[in-house]
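Weekly structure sync, notes
Attendees: PL, DS, HV (note-taker this week)

Item 1: Phosphotriesterase-related protein
DS walked through the input record. Source organism listed as Lasius platythorax. Sequence as pasted into the shared doc:
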Amino acid sequence: MQYSNIPMTGNFVETVLGSTIMSQLGITLTHEHLLSDSLKLYSVSSGYNCANFSLHNFGYIKQYPYSNWYNLQLNDKHGIIATFKEIELFKQSGGGTIVDKNSRLNRNISALKALSEATNVNIIIGTGYHITDTRNLLTCTTTTEQMYNRIYNELENGCENYPDVKAAFIADGGNILLDFEIRALRAIGEFQGQYRYPVTFHPGKDVIPLIEIMRIYQEAGGQSTEFVMSHIDRTLTSREDLLEFVDETKCYVQFDQFGVECSFYQLNPFTDIISDAQSIKLIALLKEDRKLHRVLMSNDIHTKHRLTTFGGLGYVHITKNVVPIMLKRNFTLEDIRVIRVGNPCRWLNRLNL
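Item 1 (cont.): predicted structure, written out as tokens:
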């Protein structure tokens, strides 16, 4: 894999090791949380003390993943070692690139560079704002102009404290559309419309109007065809709603809960997470409607129990377990290539060549 400091053009994308040609991205996971610290998500809602992590209580941890402190730390010694092994397995199974969705305040660039160098897997990071950032009072009071300028600097001039590393996409996320989220969406929409960097949005644990998110973003100047709506597998699980949303917005829809295989969503018991099989059926529906070019797939791994070292299915799950099922259900190898290679490459390509 060759990296350089070539300025970003339509044929190159920024990784933590520098610019690389788009054709070298290969199979891409578009929504992961490498070495993340998710302690802010800790919840006692389970009523069960998951203090230990063992085979004996793995079932409870799978059901209540946010009630175990140890499980929420991928950035400790055990998490780092397990993540390294996981990325190696991903590479061995044909993987090429991982898009790290951690927020600006929850990323370890030096460690990500080391992981990429050791495994020869591209790691792409983003910039922007996320709901977890709102616990920082300074972030909550940031103006739209200040948000715009920070996004500009990390994409064009290099990340804070790491000027040799540039972000490659804009990430946003929120629970409800309060003033902070609206300001962030407007800043992102305005910037994106001018500079055409790809955008990905992370719906929070609460039910929010996805169409309203798109409206605010587009009214500020953002291009919907360069926008990814994440977590479709727990936000748009109705066939009718999904088709209507894609028809109206023309954005990418990302199925990123592959490997969870637990319908109970601890952070919001009123929301269900659909199974891998149900996600495949919705993707098949989009194929029938000639919208396969708008589909992305990932795992959204941000806890230890999802990694193979700790009994999970890991980053290889889609390749090893999901794709074989899809091939038995009227998907072709070309369909898989479009979803896993072509679509991520087109989304990450600023000029959409």
